[in-house]
Amino acid sequence: AVVAPGAVHVPGWLGADLRRELVDACRAWGRGPVPFRHTALPGGGVMSVRTVCLGWHWQPYRYSRTADDVNGARVAAFPPWLVGLGRRALAEAYGEDAGAGGVAAGAYGVEAGAGGVAAGAYGVEAGAGGVAAGAGGYTPDTALINFYEGNARMGMHRDREERSTAPVVSLSIGDPCVFRFGNTASRGRPWTDVELRSGDLFVFGGPSRFAYHGVPKVLPGAGDPAAGLAGGRLNITLRETGLPR
Ligand code: MD3
Ligand code: FE
C-alpha cells in the first residue's frame, strides 16, 4: 500500500526463514562488539528502545565509526547480504519496472515515465529504467536495529543525519506496533497511523524520506515464535549514510 508519495508498505514481505535469520543475526550483533544499549540523549534522558548499529554507529545526532558513547569499540561491519536484501526490498516495494506506471509511479506520486521519478527518490540523474537502476545502485552502509520491550516507544522525529537522499528500508519482526507517519513540516498532524506486523517491509523514499515519524505504542503480542523471538519487537532500518567509505 502506498501511504504517501514514496512511502510504501508491503505487509508480510519477510518469510519465516528470513525472519529467523534476521533474529539470530540481531541477537549476535546485540552482544557486541557494541552491545544493545538505551541511547543517552543530550538532554539527559535515555531512549526506551535498545539499539545496536552496523557499519556506522548512530549517536544523537551524528554517525561515527566507534561507539564513543558506549564502549568505544568499532561497530560490526555492514554485511554484503544486507545490501542484497535492501536492494530486493526496494525493487519489490517500488516495482522493478521504471516507467511502467502502476507501483513505481504510484510509489512516488508522479505520472509514469516522468524522468523525475528516480531523480526525486535518489537525488541522482536518471533516465529510463531509473527505478531499477536505483535499486541496483542502492548501497546501504548502516543499519539501526531497535528492540522494543515493555512500554518502549519512539517519539516523532526525522532522520536527518544521513547525507544521502536514498530511501530507508524498514523491516519489522515480533509484536505489532502502531507506526505514525507524519508530514515534513512539523511533528504534529496530519499523520497516518499504520499497524506494522511481523515480516512487514516499509520503504521511505522521495518526498517521504524526511517526514516526521514515530512509534507511539507496541501492541501486546507473543513476539514471533516462528522466528525464534519470544517477545518484543525488532525493527531494522537500512540506510545510506553518504559518508566516505
Ligand atoms: C521514515 N525506527 O530507527 S521504522 C528509526 O520502528 C525509526 O523502530 C522506527 O524511526 C522503528 O529512526 C520506525 C520506520 C522508519 C524509519 C526511518 C525513517 C520510517 C522512516 C526515515 C525517514 C522516513
Ligand atoms: Fe526514524
Q: Which features does this protein show?
A:
245 residues; alpha+beta; eight-stranded antiparallel β-sheet; four-stranded antiparallel β-sheet; globular; binds N-(carboxycarbonyl)-S-(naphthalen-2-ylmethyl)-L-cysteine; binds fe (iii) ion; dioxygenase; AlkB-like_sf; Alpha-ketoglutarate-dependent dioxygenase AlkB; oxidoreductase
**Order of strands across the main sheet:** 1-2-12-9-14-7-4-3
Count of alpha and pi helical runs: 5
Query: Termini distance?
Result: 34 Å
Strand tally is 14
What is the approximate shape? Answer: globular
Weakly predicted, low-confidence segments? 97-133
Q: Percent helix among the residues?
A: 10-25%
The H/E string reads: EEHEEEEHHHHEEEEEEEE
Molecules bound to protein = N-(carboxycarbonyl)-S-(naphthalen-2-ylmethyl)-L-cysteine, fe (iii) ion
The value of Rg in angstroms is 17 Å
Summarize model confidence as the mean pLDDT: 88
| Class inferred from helices and paired strands | alpha+beta
Largest sheet: 8 strands, antiparallel
Strand content: 25-35%
What would your notes on this structure say?
There is one protein chain. Strands 1-2-12-9-14-7-4-3 form an eight-stranded antiparallel sheet, covered by helices on one side. Strands 8-13-10-11 form a four-stranded antiparallel sheet, with no helix packed on it. Helix 2 (80-94) runs antiparallel to helix 5. It is globular, with a radius of gyration of 17 Å. The N and C termini lie far apart (34 Å). By secondary structure, the chain is an alpha+beta fold. The chain is built from five helices and 14 strands. It binds N-(carboxycarbonyl)-S-(naphthalen-2-ylmethyl)-L-cysteine and fe (iii) ion. N-(carboxycarbonyl)-S-(naphthalen-2-ylmethyl)-L-cysteine binds next to strand 7, strand 9, strand 12, strand 13 and strand 14.
